[in-house]
Amino acid sequence: MPDIHIEREHSLGLPRARELAFKWAEAAEDKLDMECTYEEGKTSDLVSFTRSGVNGELRVTRNRFELHARLGLLLGAFKDRIETEITRNLDELLQQGDPVKAFEHGVAEATARHSKGKAAAKPAKAAARSRKA
């Protein structure tokens, strides 16, 4: 299985990074039809995400986001493109602080490139995430 591993350092501190990661999980559910689980810890949080063909984790600390995703066989053929989109999305998230805008920008670009004028179907809302103390 092809893997994607992306790390980004930041100076947000854990409370603000936690806030962005939680919003990222919500946006991933809404925009990418992911199922996300958010686990809050003392020094780091873990967002686990999954959907058909991909699963992974986003670890959040006071100074770093670390994303690790495993792609299935079919999506593995698009590893480079997917990795580029994830990297761009994560960079925009850290710059803008708005995961919804970052996802919408990425989804809009991908739709424009791949649909060639066809209307894109909106994915159904994924299962709710649970928040652990």
What layout of secondary structure does this protein have?
Elements: E1 3-9, H1 13-32, E2 35-40, E3 44-51, E4 54-61, E5 64-71, H2 73-76, H3 79-96, H4 99-115, E6 131-132
Parallel strand pairs: 2-6
Antiparallel strand pairs: 1-5, 2-3, 3-4, 4-5
How would you characterize this protein structure?
It is a single chain. The chain has helices at 13-32, 73-76, 79-96, 99-115; strands at residues 3-9, 35-40, 44-51, 54-61, 64-71, 131-132. By secondary structure, it is α+β, with helices and mostly antiparallel strands. It has one domain (3-111): 2-Layer Sandwich (Double Stranded RNA Binding Domain), CATH 3.30.160. The protein has a six-stranded mixed beta sheet with strand order 1-5-4-3-2-6. Helix 1 (13-32) packs parallel to helix 4 and helix 3 (79-96) packs antiparallel against helix 4 (99-115). The longest helix has 20 residues, at 13-32. The model is unreliable at 110-133 (pLDDT under 50).
Short overview:
The chain is an alpha+beta fold and 133 residues long. The protein is 44% helix and 29% strand.
Shape: globular
Please outline the major beta sheet: 6 strands, mixed
> What number of domains?
1
The CATH C-level name is Alpha Beta
Helix-strand makeup class: alpha+beta
CATH architecture: 2-Layer Sandwich
By DSSP (H or I, 4+ residues per run), the number of helices equals 4
Order of helices and strands: EHEEEEHHHE
Poorly predicted spans: 110-133
**Approximately how much helix is present in the residues?**
40-55%
Strand order of the largest sheet: 1-5-4-3-2-6
